[in-house]
Amino acid sequence: MYQHRRERLVALIRDKHFGLRKSLADASGWSEARISQILSPTYRDGRAFSEKIARKLEEDLSLAPLYFDYGAGPAPVPATPPASEYLRVQPINEDSPGIVAIRKVRLRLSAGIMGFIADPDPDAAQSFNLDEDWIVRNRYNADELLAIEVTGESMEPRLYRGDLVVVNTGDTRPVDGQVFAINYEGEAVVKRLARDMGKWWLTSDNPDQQRFPRKVCEGGNCLIIGKVVLKKSENI
Questions:
Q1: Domains assigned to the chain
Q2: 109 pLDDT more than 70
């Protein structure tokens, strides 16, 4: 039942709140941190979304009674997740305790909209296998990590086309000199942020600035998806 409620809440956030936990938090009066806790499969052994919590959240969101319990019951586990389901960090298997696999996804974005949908990437064999202690040590929320593929040559020589990067979607605070995944006019790009002349700029590490000029990052056409915190590369 706990997992079923979490899945119902994820679908509600995706379909009614643009994929934004903040939007649901604002609508309910709950904090984003509390929403993250009840969505976590590990917080309190995955039992945080209790009967009491479910009924209270339904009331605060003006949902029908038992909304989060609707449809619960024995059902076959699908062989693959729905295409629009956000792929979260999951244990690889019971024989690898403490290891999490961050699946590779493709982001579906719209210009001016902060929310996004993470679709399973056809090349699902590529992923990050991380020690859970690393996630805890860096104070990341495992539910907010995802992996995407670098496209283009603008971040060479630090990042190459085909490299995988882990994005912490829980960290959207701009920091001068740090690398972020950005929704730039509806396209997912990986760029380094720079502060200059009182504005934020998207900059490229590629020294060919004629091909990859910096662009101002402001307004709804430039939205931070999350901070890049790790990379996987076969370019040595």
A1: 2-69 (no CATH), 90-232 (2.10.109.10)
A2: yes
